[in-house]
């Protein structure tokens, strides 16, 4: 029974290692996308400050 648990734990560790690798890929192309919307959102926030 102890041998079965060790074998089941092994496969679980494998996917975890691949997960972080995939996470690093999406954030790379994401930074350029959120960059343009940032300046558009900034003016809106300034408008609210003038309202009060």
Summary keywords:
52 residues, mainly alpha, 2 helices, 71% helix, elongated
Characterize the structure shown.
With 52 residues, this protein is mostly helical. The chain has helices spanning 2-24, 37-50. Residues 26-40 have a biased composition (Pro residues).
User: So what's the overall shape?
Assistant: elongated
- What's the average pLDDT? 53
Helix content: over 70%
Catalogue the unreliable spans: none
Summed up, the helix count is 2
| SS-based class | mainly alpha
Distance between the termini: 69 Å
Largest sheet: none
Radius of gyration: 23 Å
* Structure summary, number of beta strands: 0
Order of helices and strands: HH
**Amount of beta strand:** under 5%
């Amino acid at each position: 029974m102890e041998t079965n648990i060790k074998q089941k734990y092994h496969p679980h560790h494998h996917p975890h290692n691949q997960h972080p690798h995939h996470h690093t890929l999406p954030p790379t192309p994401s930074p350029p996308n959120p960059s343009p919307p940032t300046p558009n959102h900034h003016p809106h926030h300034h408008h609210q400050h003038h309202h009060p």
